[in-house]
Amino acid sequence: MKYSQYPYKRIDVKSIEKEVKSMIKKFNAAISSEEQIIIIEKYQKIQKEYYTYSSIANLNFSRDTKSKKAIDENNFYDQISPEISEIDNLFTKAIDASIFKKELKEKFGEHFFNLISMELRSFDPQLVPLMKKENELKNEYRSLLASAEIKYKGKTLNLTGLSPFMQETNRETRKEAYKLLDNFFENNKNKLDDIFDKLVNLRTEKAKALNFQDFIELGYLNMNRSDYGPKDVEEYRKQIVKYIVPLVQKINKKRKAILGYNDMFIYDTLYFKEGNPKPKGGVNFQVKQANKMYTELSKETKDFFDMMVNEELMDLENRAGKSGGGFCTSFPSLERPYIFANFNGTDHDVTVLTHEAGHAFQGYQSRKQPVNRYLWPTYEACEIHSMSMEFLTWDWMHLFFKEDTDKFLFKHIAGSLAFLPYGALVDHFQHWVYENPDATPQARKTQWLELEKIYQPGKNYDDLEFLKNGGFWQKQAHIYEMPFYYIDYTLAQICAFQFWIRMQEDKESAWNDYIKLCKAGGSKSFLDLVKLANIKSPFDSKIFKEVAEKIDHWLENNTII
Description:
Elements: H1 13-29, H2 33-63, H3 68-96, H4 101-108, H5 110-122, H6 128-146, E1 150-152, E2 155-157, H7 159-162, H8 171-187, H9 189-209, H10 215-222, H11 230-259, H12 283-297, H13 299-310, E3 314-317, E4 327-331, E5 336-343, H14 348-365, H15 379-392, H16 398-401, H17 405-435, H18 441-455, H19 465-471, H20 477-481, H21 487-505, H22 507-520, H23 526-532, H24 541-557
Helix pairs in contact: 1-2, 1-3, 2-3, 3-5, 3-6, 6-9, 8-19, 9-10, 11-17, 11-24, 12-13, 14-15, 14-22, 15-21, 17-18, 17-21, 18-19, 21-22, 21-24
């Protein structure tokens, strides 16, 4: 069945509420753990149906943010999602209070109850109106960015459509493209500030309602972080400053020399004088090459990608009105994932395809997990699958880049390294924001610039006024939509680098551990999943130092600039 044929409807919240409350009564009256397990499994089906319809509504809105029908359906699910959370909370409380908790732990695992505990600490029915308002504000931000209609070189472009021009060999073209980006954000700065002000205040209000000092603790609970906290992350960021920032500076010095520039600016995005590598064809070409790649990689990936193509479970074309960026979603009652992206003719097309395919492949491999909470791991563990897939497919990059393959590999590893300080910067900034919820928009921008000096020293915006004045972070959707979801990419990147190292030493062993990790889904915490995959914790400074040294060595021996 193709995506266009998927069943869709608006669920009846009142009907679900009535059914779930009846189930809770039966659950509480059960005389054995077996009875309770049957009821839990029945509830899983109700949840899956809701998640499936909700995902379809959100995806259709992302595919066309101007469609009235898509807007209406997405708004419907945004409005009822807090009510569903409230219903889910009632059932979760019943599970937590079960007289057969020991038997349920044996059935579903300790981690299941850890997740339940965090959910109960992070939700209260009084938050429902605030959650609805938060969803509205996030959609307002998404719609604002998707509304961009930028006239350039005879075309009307959205923000994603500007990206190819930002990587042109002609320096003036790149600057012009960045100037257009700068102008869009400058023209919308008041709206952007207003939305973010409201989000910060709202999230702080939620935290206070639950008796937290600030939103940070609640934010970590929302991210289901059970085995590390803000102090661990703070120390981790220091490792990035110590080991990674100097390496990135080293790479930038090489880039500066080869490009022949006295000064490097934000729009100097090239790694090679003749331009960054590009895939040798568009969407259809890349899907065809990916099909060959995944056919050869393993039987599991062949079956998976054949399904994605045959059932039309990918939307990769960039077009007007389409939401920016890329993501993977899923329809749990149908046991299918979906890949969403915006190809623009740059090397990012290939990395986003392999990245999101990593998410989708994991979701497909873990689709039979016994509880919905295990279908996906926590966010930082999720990103291991995606970022590792980028590296596990290196042997097939020649299919996409042909004679420019070596250039792509160099840029990919160097760019992945350069991302770590930026990811840490975003995280540090978010901690500051929620420690200082009353800060003015200008104070936030000033703080961003101060943190840039630590994580991205020497960053120069030239005369791009909005960006120069500390507004760069406002183009980072995660800061608005998913607070504290960004350090996760960097934690996963250190894990993915370890898979990259292992692939050079023993491909079979590395791949087998990757498959094992994917099949485990979210059945364990982040650090326990890391152990399962036979890789080391990114919080271990020794492995951090080792990874940095090995990448530095590879870059020195494979430099082509």
